[in-house]
Amino acid sequence: MLQNILLVRKIYASEEHKMMKAMIQEFIANEVLDQVDEWEKKGMVSREIWKRAGELGLLCMDMPEIYGGGGLDFTFNALFIEEFAKKGISGPGFSLHSDIVAPYLLNYGTEAQKQKYLPLMAKGEFITAIGMTEPNCGSDLKALRTTAVDKGDHYLVNGQKTFITNGFMCDMAIVAVKTNPNTEEEGVTLLIMESSMEGFTKGIPFKKIGMKAQDTCELFFDNVKVPKESRLGDEKMGFKIMMKELARERLTVGIFAVATAEGAIESTVQYTTQRTAFNTPIAEFQNTQFKLAECSTQMQIHQTFLDRCIELLVDHKLTSESASMIKYSATDMCGSVVDECLQLFGGYGYMWDYPIARMYADNRVARIYAGTNEIMKILIARGLFKDILK
Ligand SMILES: Cc1cc2nc3c(=O)[nH]c(=O)nc-3n(C[C@H](O)[C@H](O)[C@H](O)COP(=O)(O)OP(=O)(O)OC[C@H]3O[C@@H](n4cnc5c(N)ncnc54)[C@H](O)[C@@H]3O)c2cc1C
């Protein structure tokens, strides 16, 4: 169906990609799909599924083999994200772990930090999170209030983070803090904080309108002693590092959005072919055909730009502006495609058992997290006017 009209994706053309795709699809069909209801009831996935993904080599696929990774390139990570998105599965926070936390360590960690964490992460034995947002600041990250006071061989950390993906299950989080607070040397610094550290506690997972199997929660730090060797990068480098790494995070959100739209269209084509009204398959109404034609066109246009962005990331050339463009435009597109598709399901589209309903609820947040779509437009405009306006 949809595959009949889509452009062939060169980024996934190799035999290795085809084999990986088949393995991921098998993993989802045999080990993930029938657990989703249970995970949603608990508000989190199981630790076993993390270990199983690790065993299959599906975590940290683009990390070097010397650190336990797959030694592959990012296109394999992208494929993994897409197969989950197409089926409307948002529970396991694998992508945040493999595509966001792992590169922070690889790119800015010391050799000891890489050796300590990356192999455990690749095995799924250590679940990770990233803590930037606080109750008083999300978009305006520089305003964060969590402090890390220098105590010689360690920092004393106090503060709070909120909306943290993998927060409840995490064994380790990269946390943005203010070092040298209220002095001229004040700045944002990143620390590697293990959840077993004394004074590190977690809230219960939030009840959300979607992504119900993902354990989003608050993290609290009460006089947590963090050894100096757990600093990631230099003091005051945190903001710069986050701005650089956020391009990749935004790309992953774009990947999830485009694949969700593809999955939504595919399942709507199938549904409308089977469902009848007035003795006619819904698919035969011109409205259905026009809506799905429009959705497919939008999805294809975004997929083409997305593939270019993935290639650029693999070549270390993805700019902040392109990452912002794909993030905001693909998530807006996904929102409207899923909405149109749900409409074509009629009342069944509103029922939780139908993946289209989950896609509808799950993807609303994509326009908010990893930087809101409004912030993406600010970043794109900043690039446009860089040499003109102060
Ligand atoms: C399910 C979920 C998972 C998340 N996971 C993580 C995570 O793992 N780690 C983490 O650190 N954070 C995480 N977040 C937080 C997320 O990144 C923030 O919610 C997001 O960046 C927005 O920040 P905020 O909620 O404080 O909104 P605010 O910054 O308060 O923004 C509110 C509104 O104001 C608009 N706005 C703000 N500034 C401007 C401006 N200058 N111009 C125009 N409009 C503006 C915004 O676009 C938005 O519409 C998660 C959030 C959710 C909901």
Automatic annotation (TrEMBL):
Its cofactor is FAD. Residues 129-224 form the Acyl-CoA oxidase/dehydrogenase middle domain. Keywords: FAD, Flavoprotein, Oxidoreductase. GO terms for molecular function: acyl-CoA dehydrogenase activity; flavin adenine dinucleotide binding. The keyword Ligase does not apply. Residues 237-384 form the Acyl-CoA dehydrogenase/oxidase C-terminal domain. Pfam families: Acyl-CoA_dh_1, Acyl-CoA_dh_M, Acyl-CoA_dh_N. The keyword Oxidoreductase applies. Residues 14-125 form the Acyl-CoA dehydrogenase/oxidase N-terminal domain. PROSITE patterns: ACYL_COA_DH_2. Belongs to the acyl-CoA dehydrogenase family. This is Acyl-CoA dehydrogenase, short-chain specific. It comes from Flavobacterium frigoris (strain PS1).
